[in-house]
Automatic annotation (TrEMBL):
<dbReference type="InterPro" id="IPR017871">
    <property type="entry name" value="ABC_transporter-like_CS"/>
</dbReference>
<dbReference type="InterPro" id="IPR050166">
    <property type="entry name" value="ABC_transporter_ATP-bind"/>
</dbReference>
<dbReference type="InterPro" id="IPR003439">
    <property type="entry name" value="ABC_transporter-like_ATP-bd"/>
</dbReference>
<comment type="similarity">
    <text>Belongs to the ABC transporter superfamily.</text>
</comment>
<feature type="domain" description="ABC transporter">
    <location>
        <begin position="1"/>
        <end position="230"/>
    </location>
</feature>
<keyword id="KW-0547">Nucleotide-binding</keyword>
<dbReference type="GO" id="GO:0016887">
    <property type="term" value="F:ATP hydrolysis activity"/>
</dbReference>
<keyword id="KW-0067">ATP-binding</keyword>
<dbReference type="GO" id="GO:0005524">
    <property type="term" value="F:ATP binding"/>
</dbReference>
<dbReference type="InterPro" id="IPR027417">
    <property type="entry name" value="P-loop_NTPase"/>
</dbReference>
<protein>
    <submittedName>
        <fullName>ABC transporter</fullName>
    </submittedName>
</protein>
<dbReference type="Pfam" id="PF00005">
    <property type="entry name" value="ABC_tran"/>
</dbReference>
<keyword id="KW-0813">Transport</keyword>
<dbReference type="InterPro" id="IPR003593">
    <property type="entry name" value="AAA+_ATPase"/>
</dbReference>
Length: 254
């Protein structure tokens, strides 16, 4: 993103949601955006996905201007938006269908992924019959099978309990390794950002802007126990300090 700013026209006049933001996301990396509620994280995603026109600035993908162009990136919205009347399999193939792949072909393509990534046996269930973690797997697989090199995930695990969230993080890292995609990830959980990412960009609000880039130089694969190592703790404290939290506090209020 090059100098992207967004001003919304509201009943109370113009609202400057995003100050010029420049972000460089290298290919194949796992990059997180963290910041307080309302700092413009979802707005950034909407701009990158081409759903929101920036007031100024450009979005480049592989060096090519993609500003306002939809269908270039996979995007999982903050709400999973699985269609309740479709089976898990038919939810997962939605992106392929939108791309014009015939349904039978899309189903054949998707089935092995459901098997391999923990949804085997659930193909013909409806979303309402699944646990929260299973629903997020289905929504994530749908985003992945949209078949673009870049995927945007907006707080995908925000509503999950701690244990399910930890399982989903492992699952996502496996998928990221298998697929080799570029992932941009929004979370308000600082520990999650440090655990998953190669890079963290910290944002602030009023107006929304990026205030710091923190490279996470912890080796991979990362065992869970990494969270207690001094290197990990130092990175987490740095993020919390940038978010304006006292040193030993959790990120709940973000
Ligand atoms: P975040 O995802 O970081 O919580 P958002 O990107 O959703 O923040 O929103 C950034 C700011 O822009 C918020 O103050 C929000 O209320 C405002 N905003 C978002 N969309 C619109 C819109 N369509 N019209 C007016 N204001 C908006
Ligand atoms: Mg948001």
């Amino acid at each position: 993103m090059e100098d992207v700013s967004v001003t919304f026209q509201t009943a109370d006049g113009p609202f400057h949601a995003l100050a010029p933001v420049t972000l460089n996301i290298p290919r194949g990396r796992f990059v997180s955006l963290i910041g307080p509620s309302g700092c413009g994280k979802s707005t950034i995603f909407n701009v990158v996905a081409g759903l929101q026109s920036p007031t100024r600035g450009r979005v480049l993908i592989d060096g090519i201007d993609a500003t306002g162009s939809i269908g270039q990136v996979g995007y999982m919205l903050q709400k999973d938006l699985l269609l309740p009347w479709r089976t898990v399999l038919d939810n997962v193939i939605l992106g392929m269908e939108v791309r014009g792949v015939p349904v039978a072909e899309a189903r054949d393509h998707a089935r092995p992924y459901l098997q391999r990534y923990g949804l085997g046996g659930f193909e013909n269930r409806h979303p309402g019959a699944l646990s929260g973690g299973m629903r997020q797997r289905a929504a994530l697989l749908r985003t992945l099978l949209f078949d673009s090199d870049v995927i945007l995930l907006d707080e995908p695990f925000g509503a999950l309990d701690a244990q399910t969230k930890a399982q989903m993080q492992e699952w996502l890292l496996k998928i990221w390794t298998d697929f080799g995609k570029t992932v941009v990830f929004v979370t308000h959980d600082v520990e999650e950002a440090v655990y998953l990412s190669d890079d963290i960009h910290v944002m602030a609000t009023r107006p929304g802007r990026v205030i710091a880039h923190i490279p996470v130089d912890l080796p991979r694969p990362r065992p869970r126990s990494v969270v207690t190592t001094p290197g990990f703790v130092a990175l987490k404290q740095r993020c919390l300090a940038l978010l304006g939290h006292p040193a030993d506090e959790e990120s709940e209020a973000a």
